[in-house]
Amino acid sequence: MRVVNCVGFGPPDKLAPEERPDLAVLPEHVLIDVHACGVSFVDTLIIQGRYQIRPEPPFVPGSETAGVVSAVGKGVDDYAVGDRVIGMSLLNGFADQALLRPAQIRSLPAGLSFEQAAGFVQSYCTAYFSLHRRADLREGETVLVLGAAGGVGLASIDVAKAMGARVIAAASSPEKLDACRRQGADELIDYTKEDLKLRAKALSGGGVDVVVDPVGDAFAEPALRAIAPGGRYLVIGFAGGEIPTVRWNLILLKQCQVIGVDWGGWSAKHHDENDRLFEEVGEWVSEGRLSPLAPATFPLEEAPRALRELMGRRIVGKAVLVTR
Ligand SMILES: NC(=O)c1ccc[n+]([C@@H]2O[C@H](COP(=O)([O-])OP(=O)(O)OC[C@H]3O[C@@H](n4cnc5c(N)ncnc54)[C@H](OP(=O)(O)O)[C@@H]3O)[C@@H](O)[C@H]2O)c1
Questions:
Q1: 278-307 pLDDT, tens per residue?
Q2: Ligand 1 centroid to residue 169 C-alpha, Å
Q3: What is the DSSP string of 29-85?
Q4: Claim: this prediction has a pTM higher than 0.90
Q5: N or C: which end of the chain has fewer CB within 10 A?
């Protein structure tokens, strides 16, 4: 089998492709021939030792895979050889084989390619959990999405549009904004050139109902200032680098809610509810209500380049490694 190994914490150049003996299936496990592996922002943190969980190098990064079941171990009834599946694990994703427990696997929703599926679970479950479960988004409301051409961002546009909202997408380049438009965004803001607060207020007729914020940093305060009275601000991540501090008087004056979102933490403690959430998202895909854009693809061996591009804000949408 082929893997991409992280031999020491540091920049993506520390990753090295490696040949290993093929994996064999174990009892209570499922063996998967991986076709595509998602590259996520979390992977960029893990390889640098900057994530809350610090595995000891050497380790194989990668948390999302999509492929075909090649063998099932004793005691596994839910999956059979030939099933198209998605795999989820914190590590070992950058490889052309994966050995996972059934609880780490989901059936691949009809209508998704392996490439789309490998970048799907984290971004779409986070977007759906945020907007559907946490913000209780209503039809006709206006949503401002920051980092809107990133994984969580594009998924949030897709989910918000499927829920009948009006979406204002904010991103850093014309190419990224074009992807937001293709994903369904109604209005676009280049927040590196335009005043985020003024434009979002103007485009929403005075204030947005919901902010989706996976970026933080310097964009958080103008986004909070663009919120309508009684709005909801979803704190999802800090891809911009700095964890922002806000003046609480803004929250008081807006009478808004600031809502923390940690889909990963929630799903680890709410297995049944998370299974239901995934089923709902999968149904929306199969019914055509959600349609993820095709990701940027790289050969497995080029994982370091994919990670560098992601860290340099040059990826539009998701980045995915393909193995065959
Ligand atoms: N809370 C949760 O449950 C949850 C779940 C998944 C992910 N997250 C977090 O959400 C954040 C975004 O994840 P993602 O998968 O959407 O990542 P992504 O695909 O890399 O997108 C992040 C976006 O942030 C923007 N950005 C601004 N400054 C950046 C910088 N210095 N470096 C990189 N990107 C920068 C970029 O858009 P522009 O260039 O247009 O500004 C980029 O498209 C991460 O912090 C991740 O850990 C949280």
A1: 999 999 999 999 999 999 999 999 999 999
A2: 14
A3: -EEEEEEEEEE-HHHHHHTTT-SSS-PPSSB----EEEEEEEEE-TT--S--TT-EE
A4: yes
A5: C
